[in-house]
Amino acid sequence: MERYYQKEIETADREQILAWQNERLVKQVRHVWDDVPYYRKKMEEKGVTPEDIQGVEDLHKLPFLTKDDLREAYPYGLLAKPLKDCVRIQSTSGTTGRRVVAFYTQHDIDLWEDCCARAITAAGGTSGDVCHVCYGYGLFTGGPGLNGGSHKVGCLTLPMSSGNTDRQLQFMVDLEATILCCTPSYAAFLAESIHERGLRDKIKLKAGIFGAEAWSEEMRQDIQNKLGIKAYDIYGLTETSGPGVAFECSEQTGMHINEDHFIAEIIDPDTREVLPEGSKGELVFTSITKEAFPLLRYRTRDICVLTRKQCSCGRTHVKMSKPMGRSDDMLIVKGVNVFPSQIETVLLEQGYQANYQIIVDRVNNSDTIEVKVEMTPENFSDNLGKITEMEKGLVSALKAMLGIYAKVRLVAPKSITRSEGKAVRVIDNRKI
Amino acid sequence: MTIPQISVFLENKAGQLADITGILSENHVNMRAINIAETADYGVLRLIVDDASKASAILLEQGFILTMTPVVGVAVPDTPGGLSKVLGVISAAEIDVEYMYSVFGQKDGQACMIFRVADTDGLAEILTKNGIAMISGEDLGLH
To answer: pLDDT band for position A384 (50/70/90)?
Structure first.
C-alpha cells in the first residue's frame, strides 16, 4: 500500500493545488517587491508591479532569474529576510568561481525537510527504518537535506557523509541500514564493493534514494539487481532549497514536483517562450513558500518534460522526467557542478593559456575528470621537478575551485584540437 | 666556461622524439649528448648539439617549447672510481647537482659528464682548485 508523509497535500486535487499556488504566488511577489530591491528593480525594468500578478496565469509576466543574477547579487543581494531571521546557508559552485549562497529561515528548513521526508516515505521509509545518508554533509545540500527528512520520518539516521567505504560498509552491515541515500554512482560503487566482499547476504537494504547526478534506467536496473532494492530518483538544486524539490514514487516513471512549494514551467531556452505541457524544454522554478531566498522564475538549465498523467501512486502533483541534458555548459561530476569557465579561471591564474580540454569519464562507476592543458614557454623548465611542482600547484588550485580532484595532463603546444577556430572544450565519454 | 643546453618539452606519445631527431637531422644539426627526464605523461628532452642557436630556432619555428640552459662539462677519468671522486669534490663543496648525464664518445681516456647546477661559477672554481678539468664547447666540436 502506498504511503504518504503529507497525504492531504500530496494527493490534493488540481483545483486545490492551483488555489494554493495562486495565493502563495501573489504573496511571494508582494514579499520580494517590498523586501528585495534587486527584484523590485528587475520587475520595474519589465514594467510589472505586484498588482499585475493575480495568480499562476500571470506568472509569465515576471522576469526570469538566472545564475548570473545570483552571482551579481552575491552574497546578500537576493536575501529577503533580515539576517537575524536566517539560521543556515548552503552553497554550490557558481559559473566563474563565485559561489552561489542560499539562505534559510527555520521555517524554510522545516519545509525543505518535509519535502525530503515525502521522498523517503515514497520510497517506503517509516520510523522503523535505518536511513544511511552518504551524501556529503556541509555546504552541499545532499547530506543536510536527507538527514533532516530522515529525522522527520523518524528513521534512525546514520549521518555517514561521503567517502571511507570500509566504514560505510561496516555501519551498513552492523546497524542493519534499510534505506541508502547517496549519488547513483556511489551506490553503484558500494554495490560493487558489497559484491566483492561477499556481503550481499549481510545487508538489509530495501530502498535507495539517489540523486544529484544523471543516471539511466540501465544503471537503475543494475543497482536494483546488485543490491536487491528499489532505487528511487530525487531532484533538487541548492538555489531552490536542495534535494526534494521533486522525488520518485513507486511507479518509478518520473519525479513528482512538490507543487505546493514550487511552480514549474517549461520554456524554450532560446526564445524563452513558455511551452505547452508535454514539451521538452528548460525547467523553470518559482519557489512560493521560501522566506529567506525566494526565487521567481529561476532558470535551472535542466532540460526535461513535465506530465500531469494520472499516477498509480495516488499523488496528484506534476511529474518531471529525468533531466535529459543542459541548456548551458555545466557538467555534473561526482554530483558536483562543474563549469568549464571555473577551470579556465584557474588556468589563467596559474599562468597557463586558455587552451584546454576537459575529459570526463566514468571508471568503475566513479566519475573522473581530466584537464588537458598546453604547456607554455613561461611554465616550462629544464628541471622536471619544477614542472611537476607547478602541475601539483595547478591540481590543488583546481581542487580548491571545484571541490573535487581533477587530473591534470600537460600536453604539447597546439596539440589540443580546434574545430572551425573554436576549441572543443568538453569531451564527455560517460555512458550513463 | 659553460655549454649551451637545449631543453624541449615532450609529451609522452609515440613519435615525439623521432620528430625532433628527424628535424635536426634534416637541418644537419649533430647531437653530442642527449638525456630525457620523464613522468608518466610528459618529459624534458635535454640536448647538446653542435649548433645550439640554429637548432633552437628551428625547433621553435616548428612549435616546440624549449629553453636554453648553461651547463658545465666535466672531464671524468675513465677508470673505476673516476666519477665518484668528482662527485665527492662537488658534494664536499655543498653544490647541489640538479641533474647530470654523459656525452657520447670520449677523449684521451676521459669520459665527459654534463652537470647542471645553480651555482655554475662555484662549480668551476672548486673543479679547478681540485685539478679536475672542464670540457669546453670547442672540445665537443660545438660551433
So the answer is: very high
pLDDT tens-digit profile of A162-188? 889 999 999 999 999 999 999 998 898
* Whole-Å CA distances, A99 to A38, A44, A309, A338: 18, 27, 38, 11
Residues 123-142 on B with a CB inside 8 Å of A are none
Domain of residue B122 covers 70-135
Range 15-74 of B in CB contact (< 8 A) with A: 16, 37-39, 41-44, 46, 63-67, 69
Interface residue of B9, B17, B60 to substitute, partner A, most A CBs within 10 Å = B9
| Cβ separation B37–A384 shorter than 8 A | yes
Nearest CB among A382, A384, A414 relative to B69 is that of A382
C-alpha closest to that of A292 among A138, A110, A61: A110
> Rounded to whole angstroms, how far apart are CA atoms A149 and A115?
7
Amino acid at A131: C
Residue of B nearest to A386 (CA): B98
Residues A12-47 pLDDT 10s: 999 999 999 999 999 999 999 999 999 999 999 999
Q: Is B118 an interface residue toward A (CB < 8 Å)?
A: no
CA atoms of A49 and A39, how far apart (whole Å): 11
Instruction: Kindly report the backbone phi and psi dihedral angles of residue B77, in degrees, each rounded to the nearest multiple of 5, phi listed first.
Output: -55, 130
Element of type H or E holding A265: strand A262-267
Which of A352, A378, A384, A418 is the best substitution to test chain B (most B C-beta atoms within 10 A)? A384
Strands B66-77 and B110-117: antiparallel
Q: What is the ipTM of this complex?
A: 0.87
Kindly report the backbone phi and psi dihedral angles of residue B11, in degrees, each rounded to the nearest multiple of 5, phi listed first: -85, 140
Mean pLDDT for all residues in chain A: 93
Catalogue all structural domains in chain A, each as residue range(s) with its CATH number.
7-328 (3.40.50.12780), 333-428 (3.30.300.30)
pLDDT class of A419 with cuts at 50, 70, 90: low
Do B79 and B119 reside in the same domain of the chain?
yes
pLDDT number for residue A364: 83
- Do B74 and B64 belong to one domain? no
Residues B79 and B59 grouped into a single domain: no
**Residue B128 confidence (pLDDT) above 70:** yes
Average pLDDT of the segment spanning A322-336 = 88
Number of domain units in chain B: 2
pLDDT at A423 over 70: no
Task: Write down the pLDDT at residue A247.
Answer: 98
Say yes or no to pLDDT of A96 above 70.
no
Residues from chain A that touch B44, judged by Cβ atoms under 8 A, are: 381-384, 387
Kindly list the residues from chain A whose CB atom is less than 8 angstroms away from the CB atom of residue B63. Answer: 412-414
B38 lies in the same domain as B89: no
